[in-house]
Amino acid sequence: MAALDFKLEHPENGMLYFDPTIGWSTIVQLAGFVVAIATVFYQMHAQRNLQREKHRQELQVSTYEKIAEQMSFVSPVGVAMTFQIFYEALENAVAKKNETGTYVPPPFDPKELDNDFKKSSMGLWEIASSIQAYEIVAPNIPLFRKALVIKLRQLGGAYLPLVQALPYLLISEKGITDPEKLMIPDEQEFRTLQAKVDKFHEIAYDVTSFLYDIQVEMQNSLLGTLFHRKVPVRTPENKSYIVLTSEDYEMLERIERFVKES
Prior knowledge:
Strand order of the largest sheet: 1-2
Shape: elongated
Largest sheet: 2 strands, antiparallel
Number of strands: 2
């Protein structure tokens, strides 16, 4: 406690004055009080930071889950495989016709094939839109999204020659219903068709690979700090393939050129 000494008269002039005298115990108590207040404020600040960090981590996980969930259900490779199966079935049908004289076209419906592609394409463009909404999560995601969009456009361009040929090769309710009136490809036409199927499959693979790359990039950016590790980036055997990654400066330059030149 402070020892407050009130002296009514000044020793020299006899006037009234106030002479407070603070003891060491008071200083210690004041210091303890200041430390206690500082500790409370520090704890409050630390708690706010902890809550902010927790919210940030929850937002990171939620953002990744939204994008990853969409990517899990959409892939154009399935459509590409269907076209490859169709091509092989068409080859077998023509071979049997040459043996038996009777042509039985492959049991594929052009409308169903078209619907499968439209469903896949719609899902892919929705993914591109979702990625655009979360471009802020990593510096190079905007560039990677542009590369993906270019591939999606190429995929549509590769699909068009295939869908245009289907009505002439398959039985259709609103097209050719008589097998004898269907176009039966010769050797040169088969090579042309195979080239179109191969091109579609190659671009479909590129799209799927780009989706995987973006998923890895977002996973490492959003979740890497939480789990203190990173997922390895894709390493294709063919070094000419583009990989969407921030880990390789030269690859980033290649991606920028690809986007600029496409």
